Amino acid sequence: MDTGSFIGIDIAKDSIEVHARPSGETFRCTTDTAGLKDLLRRLRPLSPRIIVMEATGGYEAVVAATLDDAALPIAIVNPRQVRKFAEALGQRAKTDRIDAAVIAHFAEVAALTPRPMPRAEQVELRALLARRHQLVDMMVAETQREARAANTLLRRSHLAMLRQLKAEIERIERAIGQIIDASPLFRAREELLRGIPGIGPVVARTLIADLPELGAVDRHAIAALAGLAPYNRDTGKFSGKRRIQGGRPRVRALLYVAAMAAIRGDGPLAQFYRHLLGKGKEKSVALIATMRRMVVIANAILRTGQPWEDEAAAPRT
After folding, report:
1. Are strands 230-231 and 243-244 parallel, antiparallel or unpaired?
2. pTM, whole model, 2 decimals?
3. Of 3, 169, 230, 268, most Cβ neighbours within 10 A?
């Protein structure tokens, strides 16, 4: 039987409050170098099964990186999840020590999966992809303005801005390509992902940056992380439609684009989509199921290191 501890950490600007379950041990450290060394020294004997902290807007970054470098299992959670959990327990008082205890309790019951901290190149890749997304949105908006331009001067202004935006997108894409090319791991993952019909370079690189759990969790977890896991909405005799929710919006948005491309062809994903339509599924439901199938296949491919095979996406009867 695993007798390790569930650790909750509440992080402030200058202090760290720690609570361990089931022992109930608590202690406080500072956030400077000496305090972080003390944190590691006191955590190791507790044999943590998982160490959970809230995303606090930046204070958690140094603590999480320190724990990750020490090969301790960590997870960073949304503060709203913990707050709702506390409310469900009837815990309304709020201090650093109480918060650490609530986080530890949440860690114990939530069955969280440790998630390693992204490395520097992954953080940079994620930032560059986010910037590319912003620039593309700006280009779409400027294109719409140009189409409504009332005179030649305005049209020329819009066209000049579009040229600048296009050049900036190309510059960002070159920087993204350099990060991918410099990493054997990223290159291998991109090559495997791009073998899946519908997945091009932007989608593959976004999955690498924003869904690093690919290949490390099961099919249900990866669907939930992508925001593609259906949730029941039933109560009493009422049975509502299942809905997807949560997850990572940018990943889901680009999987939508990839699935739309895939279903236009004649490959297995397109066959899977048409198979669902033939069973009477709505188009939106069939498309979401195809997106979910796509990310599950991506997960399996990266887990095994084996490239795409058509039979992997054959329709199930």
Report:
1. antiparallel
2. 0.62
3. 268
Residue 307: is its pLDDT beyond 60?
A: yes
Q: Percentage of residues in the chain with pLDDT exceeding 90?
A: 46
- Which of 115-119, 154-158, 203-207, 241-245 shows the lowest mean pLDDT across its residues? 241-245
**Ramachandran region of residue 280, left (φ > 0), alpha (ψ -120 to 50) or beta?**
left
Neighbouring C-beta atoms of residue 78, cutoff 10 Å: 11
Q: Give the Cα separation of 31 and 11 in Å (integer).
A: 9
Structural tokens at position 49: 């099964």
Contact 18, 8 (CB under 8 A): yes
Q: ∠ at Cα 247 (69, 203), nearest 5°? A: 85
Residue type present at position 193: L
In angstroms, the CA 198 to CA 210 distance is: 18
Return the bridge partners of 76, or none.
Answer: 53
Give the three-class secondary structure for 114: coil
User: CA 133, CA 250: separation in Å to the nearest integer?
Assistant: 9
Helix/strand/coil (H, E, C) string of 245-273? CCCCHHHHHHHHHHHHHHHCCCCHHHHHH
* Closest to 115 in 3D by CA, of 81, 71, 74: 74
Mean pLDDT of 63-70: 81
E-strand spans in the chain?
A: 5-11, 15-21, 26-30, 48-54, 74-77, 230-231, 234-235, 238-239, 243-244
Phi-psi region of 159 (alpha: psi -120 to 50; beta: other; left: phi over 0): alpha
Q: What is the chain's alpha carbon radius of gyration, rounded to the nearest angstrom?
A: 23
Cα 64 to chain centroid distance, Å, stands at: 17
- The model's pLDDT over 189-228, given as tens digits with 9 standing for 90+, comes to 899 999 999 999 999 999 998 888 888 778 888 888 888 8
